Amino acid sequence: MKKILIVGAGAAGLIAAVRAAQTGGNVTLVEANTRVGQKLLKTGNGRCNFSNLHISPEAYNHPDFVRPVLNVWDCTQVRGFFEDLGLKSYCDEAGRVYPVSDTAASVVDVLRLSCRRWNVEVLEGFKAVHLTDTQVKAEDGRCLCAEAVIVTTGGGTKLLSGVGHRMVPFSPVLGPLATDTKPIRGLSGIRVKCALTLTRADTVVDRECGELLFRDYGVSGIAVFDLSRFAKSGDVLHIDLLPDMDQEQVFACISQYIRMLSWRGKSDMLTGLFHKRINEALIRICGTDVHRLAETIKDFALTVHGIADSKQAQLTRGGAAVFEFDPFTLRSNKNDALYAAGETLDIDGRCGGYNLHWAFASGLRAAECAV
Q: FRET partner for 92 with CA separation of 20 to 30 A, picked from 4, 159, 227, 269?
């Protein structure tokens, strides 16, 4: 049996261990923490949105690289793999896939139990600090060797740099955005359904639709998280507060509200259109100028300052440069016995199960190719 060493027992590492053992490998899985799958337990607010019906290469930062893996391990295949392990799943109206238990612990438990079933040796508290060819050394001096090594240590780790792999700088993504706060004063905690456009030097960078949450420091929400993958300081975020109406329709609507001023009063002129605090912000900015109100409702613009709080970011961008790995096998171009999967590689995708799907799909593919 070929000896396989997997470094990192997160989503990619756990599923790689199961798959490698299933396909005939003699597998050892090492983890720096005292328990496997700790980060996985926190995903999806503890519910673990682990895939999406709409998985496609275009949802990732390197679509050509992820395409071969996603062709082999699409949503149906990944769900089927978990089904065989005993995990039942369902899809919500947006195509997001969850375990029927709605708990991430179920996902971790079926992977943990499957490692036991397939005789995977699991070593917890093994903090890998150095990698040379097929040898991994721990901080406490322990050393392990194997015929093939799969690195699945996640975002923000540089283990692969020790064997000459170029590392793309790390940065937090899929998080809230800090913006100028004067226009949104008093709006913290208010949610709106809207359309968002991110521009840079008057050029459109990305567009998203969905729910936005105003915060004291800027904006949050899933649509904002997706935009954060592309946002830079100095960009402008354009919020369309009534995306189902064009500007002429908004102008006509506001004109009707203006005619109610005689019995409503200025402070109540937009009552029934938005949340009271949004109405107050619009009136504070525009007064009763119909043209300006219509323009601002269709383009409530905020200057972006960057990710608001890296601790709230769901993902770390960066990692091992993908051009140094074979996209079909995830094997290193520098070392035939070395593989990588998950966030260890410079891959990031949209919110909604795309990143966990990549972790699982790439872990599965790296494992079967390594064996």
A: 227
Q: How would you class 159 by CB atoms within 10 Å of its CB: exposed for 0-12, middle for 13-18, buried for 19 or more?
A: buried
Q: What is the SS3 assignment for 309?
A: coil
| Pair (201, 223) in one structural domain | yes
Contact 4, 28 (CB under 8 A): yes
Distance CA 248, CA 255 (A): 10
- Do 154 and 207 fall within a single domain? no
CA angle, residues 44, 46, 49, in degrees to nearest 5: 35
Q: Pairing between strand 26-31 and 3-7?
A: parallel
d(CA 341, CA 151): 7
For residue 22, give the nearest of 79, 85, 87 by alpha carbon: 85
Tell me the whole-structure pTM to 2 decimals. 0.90
Q: pLDDT tens-digit profile of 259-315?
A: 776 666 677 778 888 999 999 999 999 988 889 999 999 999 999 999 998 888 888
Q: Are residues 165 and 188 in the same domain?
A: no
Using CA atoms in the order 205, 209, 210, 212, what is the torsion angle rounded to 10 degrees?
Answer: 40
State whether residue 319 is helix, strand or coil. Answer: strand
What is the DSSP secondary structure assignment for residue 100, as one 8-state letter? T
Q: What are phi and psi of 200, to 5 degrees?
A: -135, 115
Angle at 117 between CA 116 and CA 121, to 5 degrees: 35
CA distance 2 to 100: 36
Residues 77, 140: Cα–Cα separation, whole Å: 39
Return the pLDDT at 262: 63
